Amino acid sequence: MGIFNSTRRAIGAHTTLNTTSIETSRHAAAHAPRGSALLAHMIAGVACLAGVIGVAGQANADVVYFNDFEAEAFGTEWSAVAIETTPVLARSFLGRFGNENVSLSISDLPTHDTIRISFDLYIIGSWDGNTIPGPDAWGIAVAGGPTLLHTTFCVSGPTSTRTQNYPDWIGGDSHAQRTGAAESNTMGYTWSNVFLPIPVQTDAMWQLSFEVPHTAAGITFNFFASGLQPIDDEAWGLDNVRVEAVPTPGALVIAGIGGLVALRRRRR
Ligand SMILES: [Ca+2]
Ligand SMILES: [Ca+2]
Q: What is the pTM of this model?
């Protein structure tokens, strides 16, 4: 089951920072001598606002979704229901998929101006990259928004000179197979055919992360691939999918000023 708002948590120290600022302000007001009450309130205000500005500068993100797919079941946030476990390491992941679009939809986002998505992309089988039979392409886009990546990947035998576009986009510069991969031949997938009967290891994992300007309450990501041979030959999957909402600095400052007003009212 995916983790939604019920387990949304802030990363970073902004909660502590806010509390510290307010508590420091209260201490200053309580111990100020008579006649200095207004000054104490001013100190409190500056301290509170400074704390809030510090929060805005840090741009802490809320994790609004995370799934490592180890529990097998998950909700309707995904358009496709498929779970596979790697032969080695026994990692469960979302997949496998072929030439298809798989979408992830997240709603009820907190106030934000940027969405960050991070995940492990598993490339399984004999991906040919820019070479025939290909190109073997993969991408991610925001529905109704920008394409975040559209490229080719190549995962082939150790002597192969096939190339891929990643980290460049499709049609761009060519690079050696597996360029940029965080893992190579760790998951136990192999490939062979009648002409190459001795299996070669063909799996790799890329850790990808993207940020997109975004303010709406919901977002849908489309993951897609094209040019692939049958799914038992060339496939992909996703693991450790994390979506974070980066707060809007302006909204935090306004909330901080509101908190300052409330603090002063409580003291009257
Ligand atoms: Ca997993
Ligand atoms: Ca191919």
A: 0.73
